[in-house]
Design a protein that fits this description.
With 229 residues, the protein is α/β, with parallel strands linked by helices. It has 6 helices and 6 strands.
Length: 229
């Protein structure tokens, strides 16, 4: 009887907390409709975008360059990447091309060092690399190892090379990109879904680690953002 009352109380308490958070977020949203928050300037930021030869990475590179950031466009496809950088520079903005295999730790270290030598310490990191696996795991085995190396393991090499320096500089932004496959399984794309689940877990782990450090160290630490495409 006592245990049942206790469980009911906990359930009621959690429900009240949810209502309070909902009300606060609703008030915040209404206030921001009247007075939108000031947009943060990215002018002068050193942005490293991995996977810029096509798709989302390419568009992010163009938009950030137009906003005044110095963009390091990194991709294993040097032909399309060079064309992108040429187009950005011809428009009067700043960008430089770097060729890198993000699944190779030594290559990642070499590339990040080259970016720092060219522009300075990296203050924004975007990982836009990925290998879709639109094949059935049962009837037509997809490139499992390639998908996991490119979509998951490469995040660790980039974080090892860049995050410690961001922490020392007390400034930085890391953006994790995932897809809806990271929320639920997708038919015929099992390796991709697993990879996106892993990226979501990596984001949450890094975010919690930075939150804990922010309590112990009275300084501004790098921020993490997870966005879905």
């Amino acid at each position: 009887m006592i245990l049942r009352l206790y469980s009911s109380f906990i359930l009621f308490w959690d429900f009240c907390i949810i209502l309070i958070y909902f009300a606060l977020q609703l008030l915040r949203s209404l206030y921001q409709q009247v007075k939108p928050p000031k947009r943060k300037s990215v002018a002068g930021e050193i942005v490293a975008i991995f996977g810029t030869s096509r798709g989302l990475g390419r568009e992010i590179a163009i938009q950030l360059a137009e906003l005044g950031a110095k963009v390091a466009c990194v991709d294993v496809n040097s032909t399309d990447n060079d064309a992108l950088v040429k187009a950005i520079n011809s428009s009067g903005y700043v960008a430089h091309a770097f060729e890198c295999d993000v699944t190779n730790k030594n290559d990642v270290i070499r590339t990040t060092s080259a970016i720092e030598k060219k522009f300075g310490h990296i203050s924004m990191l975007f990982h836009c690399c990925g290998v879709p696996s639109p094949r059935s795991l049962v009837t037509d085995p997809p490139p499992i190892q390639t998908t996991l190396n490119l979509s998951v393991i490469s995040h660790f090499w980039l974080l090892e090379a860049i995050l410690p320096k961001m922490k020392r500089n007390n400034h930085g932004h890391i953006v994790f990109l995932t897809s809806v496959a990271g929320l639920s399984g997708v038919k015929h794309q099992t390796p991709l879904a697993v990879a996106q689940f892993a990226v979501q877990g990596l984001f949450e782990s890094v975010l919690d680690e930075l939150r804990i450090e922010s309590f112990n160290i009275p300084s501004k630490l790098p921020s993490c953002i997870c966005t879905r495409s």
